[in-house]
Request: fold
Amino acid sequence: MASRLGKPVRGALARVVAPVRRAAAPVAAAVSPYGWAAVVAAAACWVVGLRLTWVELLVLAVLLTVTLLAAVGFVLGRFRYTVHLDLAQHRVTVGDRAVGRLEVGNDSPRALLPSVMEVPVGVGAAAFPVPRLRRGARHEEIFTIPTRRRSVITVGPVRSVRADPLGLLRREVRLTDAEELYVHPVVKSLAGSSTGFLKDLEGRVTQDISNSDVSFHALRDYVPGDDRRHIHWKTTARTGQLMVRQFEETRRSHLAVLLSTRAEDYTSDEEFELAVSVCGSLGLQAIKEDRGVTVLVNDGSLRGGNRTRLLDDLARIELQPSRTRLVDIARVAGTTVTDASVVALVVGNGVNAADLRAASARLPQDVHVMALQCVPGAAMSRHTVAELTVLTLGSLGELPLAMRRLSDG
Reply:
């Protein structure tokens, strides 16, 4: 019987408590650690002061209670701001100026009290005080975003912050969505530097025989089903037997860049940044010359379809510990990028000659393989590991000259 009566009582109590809990939720969520300490101290002062009739504790309890009630007044109320967050550009290069604009407006029928707008920028946050805004008034803030390093920076969402002067309560309301700023790596133009590797007007001849292509190979007897357009009529007239042309298949130039993102392959962050810039320079030159390009990294591939997608993906990649080694990337490239005519291994100083030789051995024999080892500050040099040509680059500015020397043999 007691349990039967208890259920209706608990249900009625829950219906009464639920609205109170919903009403108190915004305040409870806004209480800071200092605020909770003040609440506990006030409650303790009330209990001990009333039980022991301790006047000093009762005075302290009153002061703490009044302070907390006053703090509640600072954070209550609706946020009626109209906020716009605009980035002048969503894609910049390392070192370029990136600017954002924050506009706060008051479209409510009454004036709004001063407040603070917070704009998260990457791992940090910028705070902008907003003065009292009359009806229809606007306030604008211009801020710069640091672009010292290649990355994807999340800007926003903008939060309106209300807090009391003592920091007991703090209420945040999200007012906009977040924006992304892509900080692309620095790249170098290789125009005129890649002749012989990326530029091949007629493609690269293979050993595969085809019935139709541009590289003539030989004549053979006609068999039913052959395209009559390939009949060689002069030889047919001379021999009295239908003869057709036979061709060697040609392959359009396709560049595959294997960029190591394994932390153990680099001795410093500067090495990796140079490697990313070298990779971007090679890929963009291939795209500019309308050649195919595939970029493989330890955990997959990047989008090499156009300039923007490639640079966006390069802005996002980071060094990370990985069990996948350069030889594993080369093995994947050998089985998936079957139309590659040139493969560039872009690595740091942590990759030794044995690793480079093992990676080169996993690639097809008819593919030209080169390695670019990025060592900031080192003198540009060229040496061979077995049949693999290895270029050591000390700076991105050396890449065009290194490619010209490589093309000249």
